[in-house]
Specification:
Blueprint (H helix, E strand, L loop, with lengths): L1 H15 L27 E6 L2 H15 L4 E6 L10 H12 L3 E4 L1 H9 L7 H7 L8 H10 L10 E4 L1 E5 H6 L11 H8 L13 E3 L9 H12 L4 E2 L4 E2 L4 H15 L15 H6 L8 E6 L1 H13 L8 E4 L10 E2 L2 E2 L3 E4 L6 H11 L2 H7 L7 E2 L7 E2 L2 E2 L7 E2 L5 H5 L2 H19 L5 H27 L4
Parallel strand pairs: 1-2, 6-9, 11-17
Antiparallel strand pairs: 3-13, 4-12, 4-14, 5-9, 5-10, 7-8, 15-16
Helix pairs in contact: 3-4, 9-10, 10-16, 16-17
Length: 468
C-alpha cells in the first residue's frame, strides 16, 4: 500500500511536469580527498533519471556550472515500473543491465539494496569531507539510518510529511472549534461527525475525505487507519491474510461507525484522468466540500494548479495540525515518505564524481535555491523556506517518524490490493447497512482474501517466469 501511494503521487507530479526528488546516496572504500581538491581518476558518472531534460533542469545544469570537469550521462528509467512488475526485482535487473553509478530508489528498494550490499555506505565519505548533516531534518536521517541497519546509506533532499488539513472557513461557518492536534483517527472521525450531514451527497459538505488511496469506498479509510496503527492485511512471513483479530475489529468498527454517521463519503472516483478538471473534481477537500483531509505540502501545490487551470475554482484558508497519530505514540507519524533516493552503485568505478553530485543534491546551496520557488515537497535541509506562498509548513516537521521495515510491503503482490479492496468495500458496506454482522464479514474477508492473495502470488510467479 505504501508503495502504491508513492506511485500515485509520482504519477501526479509527472502529469504536472514537476518531478520530485528525495535522494539517497551510499558510499565507502574511496581514496582520501579533501574538499576542493581536483578529482582523481573518475571525472564522470552515469545516473538513472526520467530523461536528460528533467534531470538537467532539476540538478544537472547548476551542478555542471559548479563542476565543469565532471561529465554526466543520464540513462532513462521510464517504464521501469510497468504494471505487475515487482519494484525491487525490476530495479535490480535495471541496475545489472545499465550499471548506473547513481541509482534512484524508493524506500523499499533502498532497504533491500543496503541489506544486500548493492549500494555504498556514506559514513566514510561524510567523515572524510566533514560533510554537514546536522542541518538535515532529523526524521529523514532517522528513517534512512533505520532502513540501513544503523548505517547512513543516503540523503533525501526532499520528502513528504503528512498532516491533517482543515478548511478554516467551514469550521467557522458551522461554529466548530478548530483542532489543535496531534489527532488520532478516533478524534478525527469524532470531529468530522460534528458537521451537518443534510443535503444531496453530490453537493453537500462532509466532515472528512480521504484522498490518498487508490481504492474507493470504505477501504479508503481502512487503508489509512491501518497504516497509522501499524496493521497489515497480510502476514508476510506465512503469506496468509490475517484480519480476524481484535485490533482489526477495532479498525473495522471505527470505519463503519464513521460511515454510518454520514461524516464520510462512502464511495468515490479513484483513478487519475488525463483531463485534469476531472482529477481536481474528485477531490472533495480541494473543492471546499470537506472540512478535513490528510495531506502534505503537495496539497498546496495542487491548489495553486487548480487555481490556474479551473475557471470557477475558489481558494480557501487552510489550517494544519499534526497527525494522524496512534494513541500509543502521539508524538510519531507514519506519514513521512521519500519518493526518490539517490544511491551509489556498489560496483561504481566513479565514486568521487558520484559523491560530488550527491553532496550537491542534498546540500545547502541547492536547498537555498529551491527555497525560493514553489515546490510540491518539503526540503530536508532545515533553516530555509518553511512556508508555501505565505502558508507555514512548520507543522509538517513537528512529529518524529515511526521506524519500521518497508520490505514487508514489497512482499505483497501487486495484483492483491485491487481485488481485496473490492472485497472490503462489498462486505463492510453490508455491515454498514446492517445486512451482515461484522463477525461474519471479517470471517469471509479472511477466507476470500486468502483466495485473492494465493491467486495474486501465482500470477506474479507466472509473470516472473515469462508465462502468459
Amino acid at each position: 500500500m505504501k508503495y502504491q501511494i508513492h506511485c500515485l503521487r509520482k504519477t501526479v507530479l509527472l502529469f504536472f511536469g514537476c518531478f520530485l526528488v528525495a535522494s539517497c546516496v551510499l558510499i565507502a572504500g574511496c581514496s582520501s580527498r579533501q574538499e576542493g581538491d581536483t578529482l582523481k581518476g573518475d571525472s564522470a558518472f552515469k545516473i538513472m533519471y526520467a530523461d536528460d531534460r528533467t534531470f538537467f533542469s532539476a540538478y544537472g545544469d547548476l551542478f555542471s556550472m559548479r563542476h565543469p570537469d565532471i561529465d554526466i550521462k543520464v540513462v532513462s528509467d521510464l517504464g521501469l515500473y510497468d504494471e505487475g512488475k515487482d519494484p525491487i526485482q525490476s530495479m535490480k535487473e535495471y541496475v545489472d543491465r545499465e550499471q548506473p553509478d547513481v541509482i534512484v530508489l524508493n524506500t523499499e528498494q533502498y532497504e533491500y539494496f543496503a541489506e544486500e550490499g548493492l549500494i555504498l555506505d556514506l559514513e566514510p565519505l561524510i567523515q572524510r569531507d566533514h560533510y554537514d548533516i546536522a542541518g538535515i531534518y532529523p526524521g529523514v536521517i532517522d528513517i534512512l539510518k533505520f532502513l540501513g541497519n544503523d548505517k547512513l546509506y543516503g540523503f533525501s533532499p526532499d520528502f513528504y510529511s503528512d498532516g491533517i488539513l482543515f478548511n478554516r472557513e467551514i469550521f467557522k461557518k458551522y461554529g466548530v472549534e478548530e483542532p489543535t492536534g496531534p489527532l488520532t483517527w478516533d478524534e478525527i472521525f469524532a470531529l468530522a461527525a460534528r458537521f451537518p450531514i443534510d443535503g444531496d451527497e453530490s453537493a453537500r459538505i462532509f466532515g472528512y475525505d480521504e484522498q490518498y488511496s487508490h481504492s474507493s469506498g470504505i477501504s479508503n479509510y481502512l487503508h489509512a487507519v491501518s497504516r497509522t496503527e501499524g496493521l497489515s492485511w497480510v502476514n508476510t512471513d506465512t503469506m496468509t491474510v490475517t484480519v480476524e483479530t481484535d485490533s482489526w475489529k477495532e479498525v473495522f468498527e471505527l470505519a463503519v461507525d464513521a460511515l454510518k454517521s454520514g461524516a464520510l463519503p462512502a464511495a468515490g472516483e479513484n483513478e487519475l484522468s488525463p483531463d485534469m478538471s476531472n482529477y481536481f473534481a474528485r477531490k472533495l477537500f480541494l473543492n471546499g466540500r470537506a472540512a478535513m483531509t490528510t495531506g502534505s505540502v503537495f496539497f498546496f501545490y495542487e491548489m495553486e494548479e487548480a487555481d490556474k487551470l479551473l475557471k470557477n475554482f475558489k481558494k480557501f484558508e487552510v489550517g494544519i495540525v499534526p497527525g494522524p497519530v496512534s494513541s500509543l505514540e502521539r508524538d510519531k507519524t507514519t506519514g513521512i515518505m521519500m519518493n526518490e533516493i539517490f544511491a551509489i552503485n556498489a560496483a561504481s568505478a566513479n565514486v568521487d564524481a558520484s559523491w560530488e553530485f550527491i553532496k550537491f543534491a542534498a546540500g545547502d546551496e541547492l536547498a537555498k535555491i529551491k527555497s525560493r520557488r514553489v515546490s510540491s515537497s518539503l526540503l530536508a535541509r532545515t533553516g530555509y523556506s518553511t512556508d508555501f506562498n505565505g502558508q507555514s509548513m512548520e507543522m509538517f516537521y513537528s512529529l518524529k517518524p515511526v521506524l519500521r521495515s518497508t520490505l514487508d510491503d514489497s512482499k505483497i503482490p501487486a495484483g492483491f490490493n485491487g481485488p481485496f479492496s473490492e472485497l472490503l468495500n462489498r462486505e463492510l458496506m453490508l455491515v454498514k447497512e446492517e445486512k451482515k454482522s461484522l463477525a461474519e464479514a471479517m470471517r469471509l474477508i479472511q477466507e476470500e482474501g486468502q483466495v485473492i492473495l494465493d491467486q495474486a502470488i501465482r500470477d506474479q510467479a507466472m509473470k516472473g517466469s515469462g508465462g502468459n
